[in-house]
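User: Working on a comparison across species. This one is Endonuclease III from Psychrobacter aquaticus CMS 56. Can you predict its structure so I can line it up against the others?
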Amino acid sequence: MSKTVKHKTADTPPSRRMPNRDVRPFFEKLAETIKEPVTELNYASNFELLVAVILSAQATDVSVNIATQKLYPVANTPEAILALGEDGLKSYIKNIGLYNAKAKNVIKTCRDLIEKFDSTVPNNRKDLESLAGVGRKTANVVLNTAFGQPTMAVDTHIFRVGNRTGLATGKTVLIVENKLVERIPEDYIVDAHHYLILHGRYTCQARTPKCGACPVYDECMFKDKTKFLEL
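Assistant: Here's the predicted structure for Endonuclease III from Psychrobacter aquaticus CMS 56:
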C-alpha cells in the first residue's frame, strides 16, 4: 500500500450520500458485529459518568480510566470531590491532558451540583450545559448514556465515519449531528452513538481503515475503500 494513500485518508473529503435504502442495513450489520454498544469509560453512577466524560475531552478513555480507578474509591460524589479541592483532584488526574483546566471545571461542577441540583446530575440539556466543562458533546453523551435519550454526541470518530461512509456528511459537528439524528432509524438511535464511535475507533480508523474487516463495506460510500481491502 502506498504512503500517499495513507497520508490522504485521514483528511478524506465527504463521500457521496448513502442511499436511504442502505441506512437500516448499515446499522443492522453494526449491531450484529458490536454486541455491547456501551461506553468504554468506567463508571458506576451518573455522577461518575459525568466526571469521566468531562475528563475525556482531548484525552483517551484509557487514560481517564487509569485516573478514575484511583479517584473514585476515594471520592465519587460531588461533596467528596469538592472536599479534595482543586489541588487534591489534580493529584489523581495529572496523567490526563489539560488536567489543570479540567480540575478547575470539575470542582466548579461539583459546587453547582450541590448548590443548584441537590447533588443530582440533571437530565436535560439546558442544566447540563450550565455546568463548567460541559458543552454540547458532553451533554449529549450523558443524556444518551445515563438517561437513554436519543441524542448523538459527535466526536472525531463519528465525524469521520459520518463523512467517510456518506451516512451523514457535513463540514461542522452540528451539521453531522443533525443529519445523523434525522437519518438513523428510531430503533437504533439510542445505541447509534456507541455503534459509530466503536466502529470508528477499531475499524474505520483515520489513516488506515480496515475495510477488509468492515461489516458495512457494501453500504459504505468511501470511494477508495477497495485500496484498503487487505487491512
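For your comparison, note: The domain at 9-37+151-227 is CATH 1.10.1670.10 (Endonuclease Iii, domain 2).

User: Helpful, thanks.
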